Amino acid sequence: MLCLRLTPLLVLVLVSLGAAFPQEGTLRKGCSLFKYKQVIFHEMKAVEKMQKEFRSIRRLDRTCNTRLLDRKWTSAHLSVPDRVLLVEAELNFTIAMLQRPARPSFARTRQRPLAFLAQAREDLQGCVVPSHQPSEELRQWLQNLQVAMQTVTQVSRAGGCLEDYAIRHVFEVLGDLNCAARQEKC
């Protein structure tokens, strides 16, 4: 009889101990990405409109080589802290590309997606675990992204190629954000 009364107490103690020692697959305390578990329909429509506008004013340059940023893995295969690092890098890259000078019509069309992505980046900053070391595959991709971003400052044509890549891959970034918010298999 005494054993049955102690069981709930023991379970409570074990659960509270688990919360005291965060596991590798969790986000930093105070991190709230709940609103990104399901990307808002209006934001998706704004991104779609932005992509359509971009395609109407600019044709893809077939001499662009953005394969450097393609990856053979998906964010679903990464740990939660790796997903957060990935999304942080993707958001920084995409925002930087969307902030490049543009025609007035595209500048207006990109305002809403840019504001949404900037808010997501701000929300994500509290989630990054400072001591986390990225996996080898993510580390390699982050290095490739850094190299690509450095070429933007050196060659204006490279900036156009990367801008094109960033805009074509916005939905992938949103999917990765959604995956990071779930903290589970995507």
Automatic annotation (TrEMBL):
Signal peptide span: 1-20
Subcellular localization: Secreted
Classification via InterPro entries: IFN-lambda_sf, INF_lambda
Pfam families xref list: IL28A
Gene Ontology MF terms: cytokine activity
GO cellular component: extracellular space
Main location: secreted
BP GO annotations: cell surface receptor signaling pathway via JAK-STAT; defense response to virus; innate immune response; positive regulation of immune response
Residues forming coiled coils: none
Family statement: Belongs to the lambda interferon family.
Name of this protein: IFNL3 protein
Native organism: Furnarius figulus
